[in-house]
Amino acid sequence: MSRIRFNALQETLRRKPIKVIQNEKRSTLFGQNVFNKYAMQQYLTRAAYESVMNAIDHGTKIDRKIADQVAVSMKDWAMSKGATHYTHWFQPLTGATAEKHDAFFESINGSLAMEKFDGEQLVQQEPDASSFPNGGIRNMFEARGYTAWDPTSPAFIYETTLCIPTIFVAYTGEALDNKTPLLRALQAIDTHATAVCKYFDKNANKVSATLGWEQEFFLIDEALVLARQDIQFTGRTLLGHSPAKGQQLDDHYFGTIPARAMSFMQDLEQECMLLGIPVKTRHNEVAPNQFEVAPIFEEANLAVDHNSLLMDVMQKISRRHKFKVLFHEKPFAGINGSGKHNNWSLSTGNGTNLLSPGKTPMKNLQFLTFFINTIKAVYHYEELLRASIASASNEYRLGANEAPPAIISVFIGRQLSAVLDELENVTKGKLSPQEKTDLKLNIIGKIPEILLDNTDRNRTSPFAFTGNKFEFRAVGSLANCAIPMTVLNTIVAKQLKEFKIEVDALIEEKDLKKDEAVFNILREYIKDSKAIRFDGDSYGEAWEKEAKKRGLTNYKTTPEALKAKVSEKTISLFEEMEVMSKVELEARYEIDLESYAKKVQIEGRVLADIARNQVVPTAIIYQNTLLENTKNLKEIFGDEYKIIAKEQLELIMLISNHITKINALVIKMEAEKVKVNKYSGFKLAAHYSNKIKPFFTDIRYHCDQLETLVDDNLWPLTKYRELLFTK
Ligand code: ADP
Ligand code: MG
Question: Which residues form the GS catalytic domain (predicted)?
C-alpha cells in the first residue's frame, strides 16, 4: 500500500481553518506598508515631494540631490515600520518577479556601524543577474544589466524588506524585463490618445490606460500535492481519471466559500490591504476548489505590479494555510481551467473614462471614436494579440471547450452593433444639417440609454465590450499582464495615430468640419473591421469555420502563435511606436520558444517517470495479487477456475495490455526526445509541440485506465476526487 497518499489524506482530514485576527477596518489597513502620496507628504521635503509627483505625472527626471533626500526619507519611513533590508524589485523575462535583499546596515572603519541608504542605491543597482533569460541581448562577458527605480509604482514593505519597483535594462539600453516595454507602451498610448482627445476637449493633457485583472486559481491541500510530482514540478496533473462527480452540478460556483479557503482569503486580503492592492471581490469559481480574487481597477503599470505582487503573496500565505496555489491554466483535465481577465480602458487626467458614453452627443462621439478605434486595432493586429497570450500552459486552455478559443474576435452586443450598422450608412463627405441632427439625436444620442440596459453578455468571447471597458478574457492565469497590456496599448496607440492623420487630412484637404471628418473616418473603420466582430458562440465548431472564411487566424499551438511576435508587421509597429526594437522583440521570441520547449520537456520527463516508476509497478503488484488468487482458485477448483476466476483473468489481460502500451509509448517518446539535439529556436519548440506532446494524451489514457482497474488501496497518486473535493 502506498503510504504517502494515505498519510496525506489523513493529514488533510485533520486540518482546521487557521484563525485570522481581523481587528482593523480595511480602510485603516489600506496602504499602511506603501510609500504612497500620504507617506511621502509626511516624510519628504516639499521640493522632493513635488519632484517625485512630477516624475509620476509627467515622466520628468529626478535629480541626484533630490534622490538622496527621497532615499533617506524612504529608509526612515521603512525603518519606522520595522524594515531592515531593501531590494530592487523587478520582473525579468522569466515572467516571475525577482529580488535581491541588501541590509540598510553599513559599517564605518570596521568599528562603528549605521543604517544607510542613499540616492544611488535607490536609483540604480547592478544585480548579479547573469542567469536571467536575455535572449542573446546581453552577452555575459560584455554588457551588464542594471535595475533603475520606477517612481510611478510606489515602494512597499513586504515582511521586513523595503521593495523598490524597478525596470531592468542592459547597459546598451535594451529592456531585459516586462516592465520597460509596458512603460513605453503606456507613454505611446498617452501621446496618441491625448492628441485624439483634443478633438473633443481642447484642455485634454493626459490619458492613462486602466487595468482591472481578475485572478483565478485553485487551492489544493499541500499534503495532497506532495504525493504528486506532476503538480509539484509542472503545476498541473499529467494524469488522473475524472471523478464520478466533477463540476456537472455547478454547485461550487458562487457557493459558500469553504472554511479553510475563507481563512486563507481573509489572510490574503489583509496583506493586500497593507500593500495597497485594492482587492474587492472574492468568490468560488466554476470548478471545485477554484476561486477568484479581483481588485478595483488601477492605472495599468501599477495594476500589473500589483498582480505580480499578489501572485507572490498568495504563494507565501498559502503555505501558512497548508495550501498550494495552482496558477496553471489547466491543472485538471476535464475540469474548468483558470484565466486572468484583463479589463482595460482609457482614462483622462480628470478621470473621464473614454470607453464610457457621456451625457452630450460630443462625449458620445468621443466614446465611439475610442470604441471603434480599439476594434479596428484588434482587427488589424489580431495575430499579435493572440501571440501575446501564447504559452505552454495557456495552450491547454485556448481552444479547449470552456475557455476562449484561439481565434481572436470582438463582442460588442446587439445594441452597439445596431449603432455601428447605422453609422456605416453615414453620407460620404459633407453631411446635411438634417443628417447631422438625426445622428446626434437618434443614433449617438441614444447610446447611454442603450448601455444602461445592456445586459447581453457573451462569456465565450475572447475580447468583449462590457459596458464601459473591454475585457480581454484569453489571458492566462499564470501570465504576467505586462505582456498583453504592452501589446494592447501599443496597437491602440498606433491606431489612434493613424486616425488622427486621416481625420486631419479630411479637415484640411476636403474642408470638412471636425465632427464630419470623424464620422467619415469611423464609417470606413466600421466597414473595414467587420470581420473581427462576432456576437455568437465562440466555442462552437461553426465559428471556427466562419472565422476561417473571414480570414481570421486560428493558431492552436504556441510555437505557431508566437511567430507573430517577430513578423515584419510587428517589428515595424513596435519600432514606430518606440516600444521595442527588433533586437528586443527577437530576444523575447527566442526566450518564449525556449521556455515552451523546456516546459514540454519537463512534462515529458515527469510523465515518463510517473508512468514507469509509479503506475506500471503498482499495476504489476495488483496483477500479481490477481495471479496469486487465480492460482489458488485453480488449485482448489481445478478446471472450474476458468469460470470462477473469469473476472480476474480478464483483469490480468487488461492490465498487461495497458502496461505494454505504456512501455511502447514511453520508448517511442524517448526516441523523439533524442532528436531534439539537432534543433533550436522555432524548430525545437515545434518538435516538442508536434512530436513529443501528442504522446502525453496516449500515455495518460492508459495510466488513467489502470487507475480505474487497480485496487484503490494500492494507488500511489492522490486522485482527482481527493484533490478537488477535500476542503
Ligand atoms: P464582471 O466582468 O465579472 O461582471 P465587473 O464588470 O464588475 O465584473 O468588473 C470586473 C473588473 O473590471 C473589476 O476588476 C474592475 O476593477 C474592472 N473594471 C471596471 N471598470 C474598469 C475600467 N474603467 N478600466 C479597467 N478595469 C475596469
Ligand atoms: Mg470578468
Answer: 178-615
Pocket of ligand 1 (CB under 6 A): 210-212, 214, 294-297, 343-345, 353, 466, 468-469, 471
| Residue 504, C-alpha cell as written in the block | 486631419
Distance in angstroms (rounded) separating the CA atoms of residues 56 and 589? 31
Q: Counting atoms of ligand 1 from 1, which one is nearest the CA of 355? A: 23
pLDDT band at 140 (very low <50, low <70, confident <90, very high): very low
Mean pLDDT, residues 240-269: 81
Indicate which residue's Cα is closest to atom 11 of ligand 1. 212
Residue with cell 459633407: 430
Maximum Cα–Cα distance across the chain = 105
CA of 345 from ligand 2 middle (Å) equals 14
**Best of 298, 353, 469, 488 for a ligand 1 pocket test (most atoms within 8 Å of beta carbon):** 469
The full DSSP string for 601-621 is HHHHHHHHHHIIIIIHHHHHH
Nearest residue CA, atom 23 of ligand 1? 345
Q: How far is the CA of 210 from the centre of ligand 1 (A)?
A: 10
- Rounded Cα gap, residues 385 and 561, in angstroms: 10
Q: Measured between alpha carbons, how far is 53 from 353 in angstroms, rounded to an integer?
A: 22
> Which tens digit of pLDDT belongs to each residue from 335-350?
889 999 999 999 998 8
Mean pLDDT of 686-695: 97
Atom of ligand 1 nearest to the CA of 457: 4
Residue 239 — very low, low, confident or very high, per pLDDT cuts 50/70/90?
A: very high
Cβ atoms of 5 and 718 closer than 8 Å: yes
Atom index in ligand 1 nearest the CA of residue 468 equals 23
ipTM: 0.95
**Pair 311, 219: CB distance under 8 Å:** no
Residues of the chain with CATH 1.20.120.1560: 595-725
Q: Whose CA is nearest to atom 17 of ligand 1?
A: 212
- Name, in order, each residue with C-beta under 8 angstroms of 425's C-beta and a sequence gap of 6 or more: 523
Helix (H) / strand (E) element for 222: namely helix 222-226
- Measured in degrees and rounded to the nearest 5, phi and psi for residue 346 equal -125, 140
CA of 403 to the centre of ligand 2 (A): 13
- CA–centroid distance, residue 334 to ligand 2 (Å): 22
Instruction: Return mean pLDDT, the chain.
Output: 92
Name 183's Cβ contacts closer than 8 Å, sequence gap at least 6. Answer: 150, 152, 167, 301
Of 234, 280, 711, 188, the C-alpha closest to 495 is 188
Q: For 187-580, CATH number?
A: 3.30.590.10
Neighbour tally for 670: CB within 10 Å: 14
What residues form DSSP beta bridges with 533?
410
In the chain, CATH 3.30.590.10 covers: 187-580
Ligand nearest to the CA of 370: 1
pLDDT of residue 12: 94
Does the domain at 595-725 match CATH 3.30.450.150? Answer given as: no
Question: Which ligand 1 atom is the nearest neighbour of the CA of 466?
Answer: 6
Alpha-carbon span 132 to 408, nearest angstrom:
32
The answer for residues whose C-beta is within 8 angstroms of residue 395's C-beta and 6 or more apart is 556, 557, 558
| pLDDT higher than 80, residue 457 | no
Atom of ligand 1 nearest to the CA of 297: 16
pTM, rounded to two decimals: 0.95
